[in-house]
Amino acid sequence: MAGFVLLLGLLIRDVGRMLLLVMNIQLFKELCEATGAPGFEYGIRDLIIKTVTPLADSVTVDNIGNVIAVIKGKSSDKKIMCAAHMDEIGFIVRHIDDNGFIRILPLGGFDPKTLTAQRVTVHGTKDLPGCMGVKPIHVMAPEERTKMPAVTDFVVDLGMPKEEVEKYVSIGDSITRIGDLVEMGDCLNVKSIDNRGGCFLLIEAIRAIVEAGQKPDYDLYAVFSVQEEVGLRGAQVATIAIQPDFSFALDVTIAFDTPGSGAHDKCTVLGKGTAIKVYDGTLITDSRMVKFQQALCEENSIPYQLELLAAGGTDAGAMQKFSAGGSIAGAVSIPVRNVHQSIEMAHKTDVQASVDLLAACFTSLSRWDWTWERKVRTLAPKAEACEAKPAAKKRCCRKK
Ligand SMILES: [Zn+2]
Fold it and tell me: Could you tell me if residue 391 is inside a domain?
């Protein structure tokens, strides 16, 4: 009987997860397909404000453009900051030549070999489709064929003469990639999973808590930050304003699990679960936070993997050090193939596991021992369990 109940419970949970996935692919698609190069986060900001407002107690936009949604917690003794950057790598118009071709500068770190002949949108007084052009292979010298182009070698071709281009486009306008969502097996293939995937996690974790009638343990400042791709700028500003005690960054990480990768440089593998960050170029994750997240995954049967990213970083690097006295910082990452290329790929299981872990983090912080004492820690039992079972209450809820 117990086995049957357990089976039924798992079935209900898994069906629930499946429904959640089916219901939210549309939101994932809309977030990834929205536009917003660093410093030009207009399209994505509007979408996020519209989506998060019904779930939050307040939503504001600061001077640099971060969206900050506050969800009141069970206690206001401490602050949780969770940042998902909403900018995507893009370009800025540097020059329009006599034939109407646009010269560009990158906003963020591209892998230039993946840009050839990609479609982009130029955000002038109206959005215009363009195409990234470089010299065709037929007219390249032999040595040029093996040389990787630089981002600045590309021109954006709008298919229009200079006079027509200049009616709509000015120096300093932004450019973003085009890459609609396509489902491939259990994977999602689309531009800018970095980091609209992170924005999705934050929205869906808040939704999961709110719809379950729960609250985060402490006041939650959900920050959809700007200009991460050019140096964690929005998160830095928001951290100084919020001064969090606990902080989480939500972002993507490398899944170099394709043919040719060595066992040690895969970083993560698609479909093996959410990634708990241990290390990256900007952060040594607070070791108490790593253990806390692992304990939550074990408790809730959430598949996870540990992430050590040799180079690159996330907003957690800013949040850890720009709060007075520092914050206890960690990160939840979505494993992604082809990061910072024209199209990225994530697995639905990993996305859902990340939502589940994040929601558990927000509602379980007070169950962990955050002292620096060196010892093995376990999660304190859930308060609900204490209330439901008088015997358990006696054990776990007694005042010391
Ligand atoms: Zn990112």
Answer: no
Cα 306 to ligand 1 centroid, rounded to whole Å:
18
- Give residues with Cβ within 8 angstroms of 338, minimum separation 6: 114, 344, 345
What would the mean pLDDT of 322-350 be, rounded to a whole number?
94
Query: Could you identify the residue written with the tokens 């996020």?
Result: 48
Q: What is the helix, strand, coil percentage profile of the chain, to 5?
A: 35, 25, 35
Average pLDDT over residues 6-28: 57
Residue 73 and residue 201 in one domain: yes
For position 111, which CATH number holds? 2.40.30.40
Is position 387 within any domain?
A: no
How do beta strands 328-336 and 274-280 pair?
antiparallel
Chain CA centroid to CA 75, Å: 26
Task: Report the C-alpha dihedral over residues 260, 268, 349, 230, rounded to 10 degrees.
Answer: -110
DSSP β-bridge partners for residue 277: 307
Any idea which residues carry the catalytic annotation? 228
CA 214–ligand 1 middle distance (angstroms): 29
Q: Report CA(340)–ligand 1 centroid distance (Å).
A: 9
CA of 129 to the centre of ligand 1 (A): 25
pLDDT grade, residue 390 (50/70/90)?
very low
Which pTM value belongs to this model? Answer: 0.89
Tens digits of per-residue pLDDT, 271-296? 999 999 999 999 999 999 999 999 99
When divided into structural domains, the chain yields a total of 2
Coil, strand or helix at 222? strand
Are residue 76 and residue 97 in the same domain, yes or no?
no
How far does residue 201's CA lie from ligand 1's centre (Å)? Answer: 13
What torsion do the CA atoms of 328, 41, 21, 52 make, to the nearest 10 degrees?
A: 70
CA angle (256, 87, 204) in 5-degree steps: 75
Range of the domain at 101: 90-177
Q: Is 105 helix (H, G, I), strand (E, B) or coil?
A: strand
Of 121, 110, 99, 194, nearest in space to 153 by CA: 110
